[in-house]
Design a protein that fits this description.
About 45% of the residues lie in helices and about 10% in strands. By secondary structure, the protein is α/β, with parallel strands linked by helices. The longest helix has 27 residues, at about 15-40. It starts with 13 loop residues before the first helix and ends in a 24-residue tail after the last strand. About 40% of the residues are buried.
Amino acid sequence: MTATPTPVPAAPDPMVVAETLTTLMQNAAAAVRTTMVQAATPQTLPYDPTTLARAMIDFNTSVMMRPAALFEAQAKNWNDWTALWRTMGERAMGQEAAPVAAPAKGDRRFSDPAWTDEPVYDYLKQAYLLAARQLQDFVATAPVDEDTRAQVDFASRQMMNALAPTNFAQTNPQVARRMVESGGLSLMTGVSNLLEDIGKGQGLVSRRAPNDFELGVNVAATPGAVVFKNDLMELIQYAPTTDKVYRRPLLFVPPLVNKYYLFDLTPKASYLKWLVDQGHTVFVISWANPDESHADNGLDAYVKDGVIAAMDAVVKATGEPDVDLVSYCLGGTLSAMTLAYLAATDRADRVASATLIATLVDFGDMGEWSVFTGDNDMKAFDRYLDEKGYVEAHDLTKLFSTVRANDLIWSSVVNHYLLGDEARASDLLWWFDDGSRIPARMLKEYGAQVLRGNRLREKGGVSIDGVSLDLGAIRTPVMIVALKDDHVAAWKNTYAGRNFFGGPTRFLLGGSGHNAGMINPPAANKHGYWINDAAPGDADAWLAGSEQKPGSWWPEWQVWLDDAAADEKVKARKVGSGKLKAGEAAPGSYVRVRH
């Protein structure tokens, strides 16, 4: 029989090639201009670029002074590589062979079938995974101090993430297929995309389509209005969707990083809309996106002129003396400070219940985030803040992306540059890229007192407006919600925080990560969650005794809030019907500010 010839893909449309080449040249010109401007402009970096280099030198020196550990690792590594070569030989002879190295659960880089079905790609995959594992194992057991180990572990993982065979056109089967199918047009488009991103001058990979969402139209679109504003924040009240509402209003405190509408994405995923639909009178803080004039706003300002000012406004708007306080991430840490401040000033009854989602109050174990808090890096960061008066949003985006480089950097490099795909429409990615600055004083005080000093957990360790804070004096019922795969506020560290509150606490563990686990509407029926009414001192013991349930944690939390509320419902409150009149329609103006 005559073999069927492999079909040759049709050549790309010459007009499309010409248009792509024209765009590429335009993007190249913009990239050159941006690069020249940046090269001529002195840049103050928010970190010390020599920190990791010094750690690597210290690591290598320590290892070479103890050669026995190196020889032992080399012997073990040789055995692993021998096993890999043996299995590859067995596959070449048509035999079944168990892999020596396999991707970790959740590692989507090698999902293309060719990485398993094709021997060459299978070898590249396993060789890479084996080398990465051996390097991590050696760093974990090397005879060095823990600070050096943390720095080198971070640097080595970043290096291995970058060197993955998925990140190179020559070694990625999906990229090779796309190049053949498109007649090379995909790679030309990818180079154009790369040059376009260089021309933007922010050092970020485009991960989302630029114009698929519009504030107030298809994101941040829950009906409401601004009822109060000051220099630091706008307070939005949402229109009711039920005839009756809970007597006690609900105030949501978002973090300062990015903008509040993570909780009001598209209507089907909006946490704030869901709260309104449950019968809550919902208020949310929309923080100002600061400039130089906000540089001196610190912890005092964000507690008093932020959270407490918002609570005062809610009282005027509804006539009710207390609120249910719900908060997330850094907003939760600010809320914990607010609770302690109110307790110390005999105003604890202003808050009837508090929910802290993905919130840390104990920073004793920062995990890989400790890499960024060394003395030299913090000195460099302080110089950066002194010069600007704030941290740039895109520098914060780089920081968070680096910690999850495979998901937030390299997957986009493959899709956008190697495959030539256009960035996809995603409300979550659209929000992630709409960053917000944070003022210099706020970051300095938060870094010195809370993050590095870990003084919030100590009685009197942190003060607001001269008032010493004590988390143990808080008697308000607190619900702590953690997220199992959270890379920002690790769930076990979040669990440890419940031990510092003086009143009743309940802990709930949601599935997924920091953002996706938070935005988990019941209709999606995803991720699941864990509950356990017991309160053992150890997080693992809590999990071992917990019950896993399917779906969203939102309704479970609502049951707890119902129990904490135990009050009658009243007629729904129209926005502006109280002492505060409705101003600009939601989402207001502060959220629209981009720098």
